[in-house]
Every structure is written in C-alpha cells, then in structure tokens.
Amino acid sequence: MQRKRKNFGFLRDASGPTVPAAIEQYAFRTEDGLTFLKPKGDPSFHSYADVYAEMKKRGKHFLDLGLKKGDRAAFIIPDPEDFVLTFFGAMSVGVVPVPMYPPLSFGKLDAYIDASAKIIAASGARVLVTDKKVQNILWSLIDDVKSLEDIHVVEQFWEDNDGDIPPLDQLTHEDVAFLQYTSGSTSLPKGVIVTHGSLLANLDGIMNVGLRIDDDDIAVSWLPLYHDMGLIGFTLAPIWYGVPTVYMPPTMFIKRPSRWMQTMSDYGASIAFAPNFAFALAAKRTKPEDVAKMELSKVKALGCGAEPNHPGTLNAFLDHFAPAGLQRKCLLPCYGMAEATLAIAFIDLEEELTADRVNAETYQTDKIAAPAAEDDENALEFVSCGRPFPNHNVLVVDTEGNELPERHVGQLVVQGPSVTPGYFEEPEKTAITFKELGLMTGDLGYIADGEVYVTGRMKDVIILNGRNYDPQSIEWVVQDIDGIRKGNVVAFSIPGERTEELVIVAETKADVDKEVLSKVVATAVREALAVSAGDVALVGRGELPKTSSGKLQRAKTREQYISGELGVEGARTHDARTQKTKLVKHVAKSAVVRAKHEVKSTVKSKAGGLLNKIAGKG
Amino acid sequence: MDMDALLSLFAEAADEIGQYSFDGLSKDTAIAELGIDSVELLEIFGYVEEELDIELDDEDLAGLKTIGDLGKLISSQLDD
C-alpha cells in the first residue's frame, strides 16, 4: 500500500527530485524546519527557507574554494547544525562529502589520526572541513595525505555571500551524492558510492512505503550523522520529504538517555531510529516517574536496526514506556546496510514486534529455521525485519550461490535500485561483494512468509560439532550473569583437537572470584544452549578490544586470544600517561604543519595576486 | 562540593553504568587511569550531572584529569 503525502503538491518518489532540488521547492516554508538542541542554551532553529539559503551560501563557499562537481571534501564536523547545513551545501554544487567520525575523546589519538588519514587518502579528498577546535590536531594530515590540499574550518562557511550557484537540475541520478565509508574492524575502510539515483530509490522505500509519511510527522534524532542511519535516515530523508526534525548531539543522549523519549514527548514527535543498545539504555535510565509525565501516543515508528535486535530488550523498552501511551506496534525492526544505501526491509507500521520461535536442533544441525513447538523451552527467537521494499528483493543462497527455499538459513542477497554501484576506486573489493545476482551482504538469515530474519554475520558463526551458533545467542546468556560487565562479552571458536572449540571472553567486575565465576558462566551456557565452553577467559574492565565507537571486535579478540596478547593492552596506567604525551605531540605537529602550510599559501596567493595584476585582473 | 560525597557518587555512577567497582578512590585518582572507555565515561558524567541537577560542558569534561578536578568543575557550576 503506497501513499504519497500531498506535500504542498510536491510528489516525492524514486524519480526525484534530488535532495537539493527538494530543499529548493520548500524554500517558501518559513514556519517549520530543523531544530538543533544544544547541551546548554536555547535550541537553534532553521526554517526550510533558511535551510535553502544556507545551502546556497555554503555551496558557493565550496565553489569559491576552487572545488568542482565530483571533487571530494572530507567532513569532520562534530556539531550537528554545521554538519547538516554544510553537507547540503556541498551536495548542492555536486561536491561529494565524505563524512567521517570526530575524535570522541583525546584518548587513542594515534589510531584516530591514522584511520582518518586512510579514509581521506582512499577518497582522494582535496579538502577537509572541520571546526576551529578539532583542526588543532588534524593539520598533520596535510603532510600524511597526498591528495589533501587544504583544511578549512566550518566557521568560514558562515560568512555571507551572494549564494549564486548553478541550477540544481544539473545533478543527475548517476552523479555521486556522497561516499559512505564503512568501518571495517581490521581491514582498510571501503567507501560506498551513494549516487543520487540509489539514494532516491532508498528514500522512496523508507518514506513512502516503510514509514508512510503524512503531514503530521515529526522526527527526532540523536544518531551520529557520519553513519548511514543518522545521515540518510535523519538528515537526507526528512529534508527531502519536508518532515520537521529535531536533532540532539549524540553526547546529549549518551549522558542522559532519558532525554531521547523526553524530547519525543516535548515535540510531539512520531519518528525516531536507533540501534538495539539505545533502547536498553533509554529504558534503564528513564525513571518511571518521568515516564508518567511523558506523552508518547503520537509515536508511530521507532525503527531499530544496525545491530542484531534482542527481543527481550525491545519488549522491556515497550513495557517501560507503555504508561506514556507508547503503542507496541510502533517498534519497527528493519534491515539494511550501507552498500544498499541504507534500508532494505521494514516491518509494517501496523504490525507488532514478532519473534519467530525456531527449533534449536534443526537450526544448528540442518541450518533450517523450523517453527518450534509451543512448549519447546530451548527454542531460539529471531525478530522479523519485515518485507523488502517494492522493486527490491532479498534472496537466501548457500555457499555455492544457489537460491535456498523458505526457512533455510544462508547468506542474504539484496537486489534492487537501492543497491549502490560499489566501493569507490576498489574494483576488486566491489567484484567480491557486488555480484550479478545482487549484493552479497555477508549476513546470515532466512525468509519466512516473505519476511526477512537476520540471524548473524557469516564470519562470526561458531561451528561446534557440526552445529551452527550465532555468537550473540551465547553472549546474551553470559552478559546477564551477576559479576559480568553487561555488553562486554565475546564468543568465538578456535580450532580444537577434534572439532572447533568454544571460547568465551568476558570482562568482570573487580571484586569477583574468577574461578567460581568461570564455572558459573560455563554452566549457564551449557544449560541455555547445551554447548560446552572449551575455555572461559575472564579479563578486567576495558581489556576487550573495541572500535572507536565502542563496539566489540570479535575478530581482534580472537586474534589476541590465540596469540596470547589478550589483556596485555590493558596495562592502562602506563597507557594513560602515554596518551597525554601523544596529545601534546599531535597538537605540536599539527601546529608546525599548519604554519608551514600557511607560509606556502601566502606565497602562493601573493604570487597569484601578482599574476592577476600582470594580467590586469587585480 | 564535599569530596567524600562526590567520591561515593562517582563510585555509585561507575557501578550503575558499567558495573565497575572501585576501591580507594581519592581526589587525586587520575580518571584516565581507571580504564573506563570513553562512551561509558560520558555516561558516568551524565549520571553525576543528573543526580546533582547540573549541566557540565563536554569540553570541560574532556579536559579533566583527576576526580578532584571534577569536584572543582562541579563546585564552580553550583556557585553560578
């Protein structure tokens, strides 16, 4: 059932208009628009009219810097307001933004600068746009990255100009809208090419089919804008459809998770998205007396994706906020990935969260998700991600690429116009993932009654005695044990004597008896899943390797375990001191390179001025 | 604010957020040496803010070295 919002007479579908052209159409709207909440002080509001003016102004600044259509510009902009407006500006003149994550703290700076250099080099970005504060540690990138010519602070894009940019209809469906770098934990980052065409196909699916946007919708987001869910789901989709949107910085949510639903209530919002962990955090940290004062009956869609959805977590969230009038059907598990722009499948708005109960025995031995008997206490539960968008399809294939029937578990393959052309300047990696059959997702799952169920990542699957286990199913059991630090558990397998052997690594509280706790863990896993752990390794807090965004790294944990290095990095006392030295070092290096660069540019511009004079232009 | 009260509030927050149990915290304890990851640390600061009904700047928080520094930052807010 497809319904199109009247939208002041403007239609929105896969044929267009592009995002900048859509912004232009809304330029007459002075009453509604985008609201940016600030940790302190009043929110900053931009009407659509204002967004349009800002887009042209900032677009003109890009042209004035000498950038042309197709040139890449790296973005390290922590403030959502500046990020969003500058992103639209770049898009409006065909400059390709490369959004990157800002430094979270001053720890692990070496790794941060190194990762940033790799992304900028891979994208061939000519400039980096950042802000006045963050630039202080980034100038060394000019020396490290050949393609990078200059670093600009976003504050210079505030300055007024005539906003005179070329007509927006020069942007075609084949043009690149932006590059989305995916954070490979060990491999080099890969930049997904998002074209205006794939973007529009996906926005059409999300807004017209998945969310069936109507005139009353209001969106709220705290999601980081450098990741696909925040960027496409809450920066590009709402502006394209003219949905008023309220942004809060991610740190506002992390510090006070109660603010998420409070903001939904304050603004009478209807739409938000987040990964599974955020639902757990919001439920845990919002006091019942505060819930009682909230009004959440207008909420129609709380999308959850990007992480495996835990039925228990999602149900607990619904229970916690039920007193505020939150309806159970509003929770919307969805499936997608950056390589397919963003989303592929949503459960229907009118459908309640459904968990498929599956017989564990046939799932693990035959890779078939057969429905479990009602009294089966060992049944596995998987959350439905709904049906693929129209014109899109999800297939399940075996290791040889043969299509499998319903309820057989295999690799999910995505087909349709949202599938992007591939990775930027990476023909080999593109050929491996983007095949004629479709996008090889690397995700395992099955289809039942036309609905997609995602069970895990292929590379993480644990095979014990010929049975398949998803690491989450083991980790979820262990993290609930008293003495274990919730969310800090990793399960994987290593080659054993006869078969693969299960290893569980978990961080513990400081005051536990590790010997006793190991036994408790092994027993719990045996009772819940009927598997024996070959080893339970308990480590101290902060010793599991994590990504910059705090995600556990299974492959790296396994590597460290095998090489005997696990926990060695956890010598934090020493580490903390070196971090301070590193910060000083980076700031100093950055300052030196910046000074050198400024001397060069001054010489260049003086020379340029002289040449212009000679040519009679100055 | 009273240092003992802050130390026990910090310990409570650390336990609540990350099931950390710290013994012997003092005003000279270096925050970076507690081995708390940056996202959790932010959650802990948020918990402390909420309990005291104050709002601290993310940048000021990023510059803190010891728990004593946190105490000073909080006091300067409470005086405002």
Structure description:
Chain A folds into 4 domains: 7-214 and 230-241, ANL, N-terminal domain (Rossmann fold, 3-Layer(aba) Sandwich), CATH 3.40.50.12780; 256-458, ANL, N-terminal domain (Rossmann fold, 3-Layer(aba) Sandwich); 462-569, ANL, C-terminal domain (GMP Synthetase, Chain A, domain 3, 2-Layer Sandwich), CATH 3.30.300; 571-618. The longest helix of chain A is centred in the C-terminal third of the chain and has 44 residues, at 572-615. Chain A starts with 18 loop residues before the first helix and ends with a helix. In chain A, the strands form 8 sheets. In chain A, strands 11-12-13-14-17 form a 5-stranded mixed sheet. Chain A has 618 residues and is of the alpha/beta class. In chain A, helix 11 runs parallel beside helix 13 (311-321). Chain B has 80 residues and is mainly alpha-helical. Chain B has one domain (3-79): ACP-like (Non-ribosomal Peptide Synthetase Peptidyl Carrier Protein, Chain A, Orthogonal Bundle). In chain B, 61% of the residues lie in helices and 0% in strands. Chain B has 4 helices and no strands. The model of chain B has no long low-confidence stretch (mean pLDDT 84). Chain A binds chain B through residues 39-40, 104-107, 133, 251, 254-258, 281, 285, 484-486, 509-511, 540-543, 546, 549-550, 570, 572-573, 576, 579-580, and chain B through 18-23, 30, 32-43, 45-47, 49-50, 55, 57-59, 62.
Low-confidence stretches of chain A: 569-578, 613-618
Which segments of chain B are poorly predicted (pLDDT under 50) over 5 or more consecutive residues?
none
Strand and helix order of chain B: HHHH
Question: Multimeric state of these chains?
Answer: heterodimer
Helix content of chain A: 25-40%
Please give the count of helices of chain A. Answer: 19
Q: Please, how many helices of chain B?
A: 4
Output the radius of gyration of chain A: 25 Å
> Which pair has the most extensive contact?
A-B, 34 and 29 residues
Mean pLDDT of chain A: 88
In total, the number of domains of chain B comes to 1
CATH topology of the largest domain in chain A: Rossmann fold
Order of strands, main sheet of chain A, comes to 11-12-13-14-17
Level-1 CATH class name of chain B = Mainly Alpha
Shape of chain B: globular
- In CATH, the architecture of the largest domain in chain A is 3-Layer(aba) Sandwich
| Quantity of strands of chain B, as a count | 0
CATH superfamily of the largest domain in chain A: ANL, N-terminal domain
Mean pLDDT of chain B: 84
